[in-house]
Amino acid sequence: MKKIILFLSIILLIVSCGNSNEKMNFGDAKMVESMQFDAATSRKSKTTNQQLKKPQVNSQRKLIKTGNITFETKDIDVTRRIIIDLVNQNNGYVASDNQYKSDDRVSVTISIRIPADKFDSILDEIAKGVEKFDSKNIRISDVTEQFLDIEARLKTKKTLELKYLEILKRARTVREILDVERELGKLRSDIESTEGRLKYLQNQVSFSTLNITFYKQNSTSEASFIGKVSKAFKTGFENIKDFFLYMINIWPFIIILFLVFFYLRKRRLRTK
Questions:
Q1: pLDDT for the residue 104
Q2: Which pLDDT band, with edges at 50, 70 and 90, does 269 fall under?
Q3: pTM of the full predicted structure?
Q4: Which of 115, 152, 195, 214 is most buried, by CB atoms within 10 Å?
Q5: Nearest to 94 by CA among 105, 75, 108
Q6: b/e map 222-237, b = 16+ CB within 10 Å
Q7: In a domain, 45, yes or no
Q8: How many CA atoms lie within 13 A of 217 on its CB side?
């Protein structure tokens, strides 16, 4: 009986050693998958810790401010110079500067980008020389949630990138190395895209946009009337040119109509 028990014990010991070796081989073959699972677990754990530590979250609001104003001015050049000087003094820049001229007015539209904390002061300085605004619209968009979401996703992706680098160091075969490098390349491309989006959003938050349209009416109504008469003559002349061009384009049809007309007329005379 003792011999039988000893024999069974030896068999169980051999089987357990065999299973242990199989598990180790299986673990080596699935190294990438296990590390990905560890990364996911670590990510969930960090997310939970961040939720528990609410006081550490940046509570500053991320706001994008955009303004549109329109007003009349007595001097186009002076107003433009004042606006550009204000922009330069406050470390901003002019995004676009366009001038339009019609018969009754000259107008200018300038789009400026200025530091967000200087937006109100610059708007007040511009308003000092304005009797009244034809239109004034200020819009504020809160992108705090979007900003924090992008930051969190970027941090998670960078953490996963470190995990992939650890996996790459442990890789033993060429296939494992190529698989990890392929996934690492996709992840790095995703990280660059997310960083670009974050930088764009940060720029929109740091610099506000103010679109300024100002105009000057012509000095006399007579000048406006003369301008309208001149425009009417020009329009009439253009219409005459268009008419002749149109007639030239359809000249084959005109000839056909004339031929048909003469044929019908000649046939009618013969009938009589």
A1: 80
A2: confident
A3: 0.56
A4: 214
A5: 108
A6: eebeeeeeeeeeeeee
A7: no
A8: 7
